[in-house]
Amino acid sequence: MIDESVWHISHLDLTIRMVLAAVLGGFIGLEREWSNHAAGFRTHILVCLGSASIMLLSIYGFSQFVAEPNVRTDPARLAAQVISGIGFLGAGAIIRNGSSISGLTTAASVWVVAAIGLSVGAGFYYAAVLATFIVLVSLFLLNKWEKHLLRHRRNQEVMIKIFDRPGSLGRVATKFGEQGIQIKNLVMQSTSPESFDAAMDATMELRFNLRTVSTDKLLRAIDEILSLPDVIALETNSMPTGKPTSISKGKSASG
Q1: Closest to 181 (Cα-Cα) out of 163, 204, 165, 158
Q2: Is the dihedral angle over the CA atoms 205, 209, 212, 215 positive or is it negative?
Q3: Whether 160 contacts 246, CB under 8 Å
Q4: Residues 162 and 123 in one domain
Q5: Residues 124, 21: one domain?
Q6: According to its UniProt record, which protein family does this protein belong to (predicted)?
Q7: Judgement on whether residues 175 and 124 belong to the same structural domain of the protein
Q8: Alpha helix locations (H) across 122-191?
């Protein structure tokens, strides 16, 4: 005998689940919004609320067919499609810039928010709240701890545009060496001169992958490199913000 009451939910309970999903997803999205990431406050709310709605639909949306003969209900069928289908949102948050990749944490948070929404939709409240708490601890506290722990082990990327003159590359590399900075990789790309009458207009882009034990030493090296007459501009991801920063000729990196 089938207990049909299991397949029915009151409007109050349904409202509580959907509101709770929006709140929990909003907490995680608020941290992403505060950190200025691609998927922020509203995105996480929509993902969590949508997942909860699909879970509710999967469990209770077809209750009228439960008593029908030869009909088998599977509450996890639609939920399984959410887990596999949410990947397209995560892929949109991942950005590759050269050899560095950003957005992986945001993509993971979107995926976890979908799982939280499914948990709330299924009435698995404790797991949903606990998962939200752990995610917030990971994004807030563990992020700071990871940056502190690995601050000396991350490779730094610096792009320098210089005039293509004899000895210009050596002078730039020397400035890194004077600060004890190890050059892990170097990619050079020549740029055609704007005028064929002035060969000195030829420029070159240098992309350095560096290993340094101190950000302060790297910033001092950048200041000294910017003072070289052959250097036109510099771009780096080694500023305190962690975002790519372009520095024009004559400006101080430490200022």
Answers
A1: 158
A2: positive
A3: no
A4: no
A5: yes
A6: Belongs to the MgtC/SapB family.
A7: no
A8: 125-137, 143-149, 168-178
User: pLDDT in tens for each of the 255 residues of the chain?
Assistant: 455 567 778 889 889 999 999 999 888 888 888 877 767 788 888 889 989 988 888 888 766 666 667 667 777 777 788 877 887 777 777 766 555 566 777 888 888 899 999 899 888 889 899 999 988 888 888 777 766 665 555 667 888 888 888 888 888 888 888 888 888 888 888 776 555 444 456 888 888 888 776 778 888 888 898 888 888 888 876 554 444 556 655 555 554
Same domain, 12 and 131: yes
For residue 106, which of 43, 55, 24 has the smallest C-alpha distance?
Answer: 43
Task: Report the distance separating Cα 220 and Cα 234, nearest Å.
Answer: 13
Cα–Cα dist 83/180, whole Å: 47
Determine the Cα–Cα distance for residues 227 and 173; give it in Å rounded to an integer.
14
Range of the domain at 200: 155-248
75, part of any domain = yes
In contact, 206 and 169? CB cutoff 8 Å: yes
Global pTM value: 0.56
Do residue 189 and residue 130 come from a single domain? no
Residues 117 and 165 in one domain: no
